[in-house]
Amino acid sequence: MANEQTTEQAEAAMPDWSAYRGVLIVVEQRDGVAKKVSWQLLGEGKKLAAKLDAPLMALVIGEGVAHLADEAVHYGADRVYLCEAPELRTYRTRPYSRVCLKLIEEAKPEIVLFGATATGRDLAGAIATHLPTGLTADTTQLDVEPPPSRLLLASRPAFSEKMMATILCKQYRPQMATARAGVFQALPKDTARQGEIVAIEAAMREDEIAAQVLDFLHETGKLNLEDAEIIVAGGRGLGGPEPFGLLAELAEALGGVVGASRAAVDAGWIGHEHQVGQTGATVRPKLYFAIGISGAVQHTVGMSNADVVVAINKDEKAPIFQFAHYGMVGDLFKLVPAITQEVKKRRTLFAKPAADTTASVPTLERSEAK
Q1: 3-state DSSP call for residue 26?
Q2: Residue 31 CA neighbour count, 13 Å, CB half
């Protein structure tokens, strides 16, 4: 009886959030090009909205970005809020957060999601502070409880990335989270899809904004693991920095890039920009080689969504084999060069010969079986 009374009292104390409905994705863009994580979040948001029987909304902020509102519809949004103004051309915390705060106040979404990028983390933190509400950072799994609770289940690795923690925001709305790029999958782009686009006004004028952007320096030649289709990653099993040369040769033969586990980066064998995992990049390549990597949660959370995973490890009981589509138990110093040699051989075999305009073209005859 006492437990029932406590439950009833707790439910009675819960605020009435019935006015808050829908899932809102804040689309991040730079120079009119959307970050892939925005479309990935629309794909995941579609699932959440369906479970809640609620609309999926998107917010596009910038200057000359009306085409991104159309793209948001093509990637699953039912309604897109578009805010365009010269002062919004380049990201700045105050004007962008004011737009978001005004929209949240008017549209009242129950869930708001951002990409866990430098911009997304900055913007989400500023908004959560002003509302105020809770914010779960760097989530790798998202789900919702069905009505009546409608709670967002935002999960991320915890306790030194050794287990997953699911975080709830029971007392405040909207429920907010940032999500890692490469974790979720975007829906196929449907250019025939129709949706509502609502224009909204900027919340601040230029003379009200203290910070000014004088210039934006684009960094070139930087490794981009998140967009790589083929990654050859190495871990502690390599034993030192020199074997990464073997991985680089294989990556070059495959047309991919080199990745690494946290253990290899912490040991100083390779730079942090190569790190895959919770404290590195979350990737979704078509092919992922995990070489000399044991398979700790910290690493697998960053690569488990690869289309094909090939693991090479001398320990047949290594956890990485639980995530691998193909596994090789053996000496990586023998297996990797052999794979590289075979890849180069096949690339040469299937390479198109140069056209010879002087040679005659033979006539091929095809006979059909009767």
Answers
A1: strand
A2: 3
